[in-house]
Each structure stands twice: as C-alpha cells, then as structure tokens.
Specification:
alpha+beta; five-stranded mixed beta sheet; 5 helices; globular
C-alpha cells in the first residue's frame, strides 16, 4: 500500500508533468479551480488548487474532503501512484469505478486531454 508521502510525491510529479506539458494538455491545466484528492484506503485528503498549470497542495487532512472542491478526485493511494507512473490508464480506471472524478461539465471537457 502506498504511503501518504508517496502519494504526495505522486501529486508533485503530476504537477510537474502538467507544468511541463504543451498544446491541449497545457491549456486544460490552465484552469484555476479548487481541488481535492481523497485517498480512500488511507482515509486522507489532499486539498489545494489547480492553477497556472500546477497542482498546489495546501493542506493534508484526515478523512473525506472538509469542503466541496470544484474538482474532486477519489481513489486508492496505489491507484494514484500507478496513474502518475503510467502503469494505470486514467480513462479505464475512471470507467471501471476505480477512480472517481467529479467536476462541472466544462471542467470535465477541459480535463479530459490532461488526464
């Protein structure tokens, strides 16, 4: 099972990947939205913002997200690490229910190229 430290490092790598991307992915990453990522197996949530093409984690809290973020992710820590490492396809994981993504329709359309 992935640790909180490994999951935080995975979010940092994802942020670096978004910041270094170009084209449509970079445009999708240009959103300015609140973000939460709940790690279901660790019962921990990272909260912050997706802004300027980067994920800025502001807080790590126990349990589910304390407030409703504009973009909400939920998954196991292992799935987060696997997606960032490229061994788990986001679309397949989302379609199978392993990963939950909740956001407004416009945000979902913009995020699809980044994920």
């Amino acid at each position: 099972m992935a640790t909180i430290t490994e999951c935080r490092a995975a979010l940092d790598r994802l942020s670096d990947d978004l910041a270094g991307s170009d084209g449509g992915v970079r445009g999708a990453a240009g959103l300015d939205r609140t973000l939460s990522c709940h790690l279901t197996d660790l019962d921990t949530t990272f909260t912050g913002r997706l802004t300027d093409g980067r994920i800025h984690v502001e807080e790590t809290v126990p349990g589910p997200p304390p407030a409703k973020a504009q973009i909400r992710l939920a998954m196991t820590g292992d799935d987060l690490v696997a997606m960032v490492d490229g061994t788990l396809n986001f679309a397949k994981a989302w379609a199978s229910g392993r990963v939950r993504l909740e956001a407004g329709l416009r945000d979902l359309l913009r995020l699809r190229s980044a994920l």
